[in-house]
Amino acid sequence: MLPASNSGRVYAVLLILLGMAPFITSWIDQPFYLDLLSRALILAIAASSLNLILGYGGMVSLGHAAYLGIGAYCVGIPAYYDIYNGWIHLGLTIVVSASFAFLTGLIILRTKAVYFIMITLAFSQMVYFTFVSLEEYGGDDGLVIYLRSEFPSWLSMEGATALYYWIFGALVLTLLVIYRLVYSRFGRVIVGSKFNEERMQSLGFNTYRYRLTCYVISGVLCGIAGMLLGNFTSFISPEMMGWTRSGELIFMVVMGGASSFFGPLIGTSAFVFLEQYLPEIMKTINPSWHEYWHLPFGVLLVCLVLFGKGGIHGWLSRFDKDGDVK
Amino acid sequence: MTDSILKVTALNKSFGGIHATRDLHLEVTRGDIHAIIGPNGAGKTTLISQLSGQLKPSSGSIEFERKDITRLTTAKRARSGLARSFQITSVVMPLTLLENVMLAVQGTSGHSFRFWKPVKQDQQMVSAAMNSLTEVGLQDRADKIAAEVSHGEQRQLEVAMALAMKPRLLLLDEPMAGMGVEESQHMVDILKKLKEKCTILLIEHDMDAVFKLADQLSVLVDGHIIASNTVENIRANQEVQRAYLGEQHA
Amino acid sequence: MQGAFFNFSRKTIPVDWNLLITQLMNGLQLGLLLFLLASGLTLIFGIMDFINLSHGSFYMIGAYFCGTVVSVTGSLIAGIVVALICTFAIGAIVELVIARRLYRSDHLDHVLVTFGLILIFDTLVHMIWGAAGMAIPLPEILNGQLHIGTLVLPTYRLVIICSGLLVAAILFVLVTRTRLGMLIRAGASNRTMVEALGVNINKLFLIVFAIGATMSGFAGMLIAPITEASIGMGNEIIIIAFVVVIVGGIGSVKGAFFAALIIGLMDTIGRSYLDDLLKLSLSAEVAETAAPALSAMLVYILMAAVLAFRPQGLFPPAGSK
């Protein structure tokens, strides 16, 4: 099912390596890398969900981090009342993020272009301030989650390795869902609407309904990423859904290569890697510079847009005769 | 009594103070190629857009196959058998020709809330799309990206997409726009064949093509149809000569 | 002074007029600051179709430059003059080096690049001035309070309000009475027409961008003596400024003015009176929980409503579609 191209093979190997990661990290005795990977893969789920609407659907959302927050609080708030049943957490995440995406989407999907960007931003700010003012659940200061979501033993999240496989499994499922979606009848409507919505309508598609459905699917997938993030960090706060977080998600998608299937995974890995090692690199230049790592990061971002079309995936697929960028 | 497929009654459309369509009446007979001619700015594309639903008329009614469609959305009209092509080539540029035509097949065959099965494995859809491409002579170019084929071929693709919707009435907005002599001739041949399948309402500047193809001619001036008749009668009509043809042949 | 009462069903709220007037002045102050940010933003948006998330960085940079000059010379006037020149120059550089290349690309690129610029500017300020904020001392004469009847108002607030109104007036004259203003207005509603007039469009863009940056910087200088200059100070307010732009209508300076005042007042009044208002219909406990959330959300609710029902904004520029 993977694209039979050079970059496709690279990605297949990458997935297999990711599947073996817990063994590799314990073999080289570096459990810290597993943490880093867990975080990268969670963000990859979020970025992939954003890529579904942004890359394939042309809907630039500057409010997608809201779903990360919603998912995380769907773990945090029940846990606050000592409800740790994982199915409840998961069910709540899906129901809440789907309803939020649907209700806001009814308005959001009526707008285009810059208005779309601004209204997604507005709704995510509303969620942000809601949680900031919920004093009961920590408000600004956030909430500690003492135990992970409880699942039957074969699905348990206890321990770093088990949680990693949960995350890895969720990522593979997400990628599979998006892959099937994009090439299905539904996905073709979404892709077509990105480039020429008026034409799609004159071909007989009620594009509003299809795009709204796509927006809801994307919101739910990102909500699940948030649920995993809550379990992973065991500390959640409104800060994780601020608008700059949404900006970072867009950055990850574009850095990896928007509307390419594996782009978001590559982009988030690069992001987490840079976040981790840029401070170290800055330190080698000047010991007191490690806190200035945002500088090369920002420069990279500017250069990426000015010079690097197609992101990392774009560079990789120049080796292919047929890039799958569409 | 002739079988009328489209009936437009007292249609008006104004943008601010400008009347783009004024008390427009039009009847198209099933099986005809019905051409609309008129000087630039007469409101031809505005008319097509109201027929296909992109623009809402200020007043008046549009009946398609005896049903009032004035309030229907573009998508609903398309699914009920009314297809249009665009004056400015409007295909999905980054997709292949086949993928473009498959979208057209998909749009008019059931809903698309199907999330799992890849469209390319749907043999029925692929062959329906290939048939349409074959009818306009593009069968060998099916896997080319739309943005990379010639302008003439993009125009043919427009027609193939409209055709793939299996319309009973096809609205063609200047299908020969920007074409060379040879490409135009090719398009005339294609349209002649299409006539067997569906009624065509044609807007075209190329008078030679219009006279070769049309059964009926309507003349649109300042948003109003001043005459509607057979090609021979229109050519003989003094008023039309003055208002339009004279001006062109002067 | 517990003056009049609002009668509302059977409950009443005592109104403290002094407090109300103070809050109205605060709202006016916020509104005018927002206008200084949003007027430039709306023109850059309307004329160049460019989304500049980093417009708030000029707000921060203005404050830091001003603070530095004040700490060296001791003169606030000198600080403001130098900082105005510097923000103008930095705005011009950003336009020439980066923004100019992107006017024709899509909004996604704008979001990314200007997000990157925010990171760059924030870190540069961190490197130059350190992580701690910078206080800007006020001259004695501005630091006092004005007594009007029983009212006590800080002098500096009045200074902010007057300067804001003054800049608004200058901008108004510039936009409605000069040739540059004519081009700006034409550009906001119909860009191709201006290009067709044979105007040097690059120069026009450069001037608009740099003036916008300067006004944003000026807002930062005005507020810094109250809040002190700090890293990322522009990142919250810029989002509200975007709300102002959308609510007022993209490209409309007049719209930005009224929307800024509406939003400034709404936000301030909402924060101080919403819980009282909610208590009229809800229990005290519910009202106290809901009020802060709701008042923080008010401006976004307004924007969502505008986008849903009047997407062109409340005062779209004349002649736009």
Labels describing this entry:
heterotrimer, A: 326 residues, mainly alpha, two-stranded antiparallel sheet, 13 helices, 2 strands, C: 321 residues, ABC transporter involved in vitamin B12 uptake, BtuC, two-stranded antiparallel ribbon, 12 helices, 74% helix, 7% strand
Helix/strand/pairing category of chain B: alpha/beta
The fold-level CATH name of the largest domain in chain B is Rossmann fold
CATH architecture of chain C: Orthogonal Bundle
CATH superfamily label of the largest domain in chain B: P-loop containing nucleotide triphosphate hydrolases
Number of domains of chain C: 1
Low confidence ranges of chain C: 1-10
**N-to-C order of helices and strands of chain C:** EEHHHHHEEHHHHHHH
Strand order of the largest sheet of chain B: 6-7-8-3-9-10
Question: What does this molecule look like?
Answer:
The complex is a heterotrimer of chains A (326), B (250) and C (321). Chain A is an all-alpha fold and 326 residues long. Chain A has a domain at 34-242. Helix content of chain A is 72%, strand content 1%. Chain A has a two-stranded antiparallel ribbon with strand order 1-2. In chain A, α2 packs antiparallel against α3 (31-56) and α10 crosses α11. Chain B has two domains: 1-81 and 168-250, P-loop containing nucleotide triphosphate hydrolases (Rossmann fold, 3-Layer(aba) Sandwich), CATH 3.40.50; 91-166, no CATH class. In chain B, 37% of the residues lie in helices and 25% in strands. Chain B is α/β, with parallel strands linked by helices. Chain B is built from nine helices and ten strands. In chain B, the strands form two sheets. Chain B has a six-stranded mixed beta sheet, sandwiched between helices. In chain B, β1 and β2 (18-29) form a beta hairpin. Classes of the chains: A mainly alpha (326), B alpha/beta (250), C mainly alpha (321). Chains in contact: A-B, A-C. The interface between A and C is large, with 44 and 43 residues.
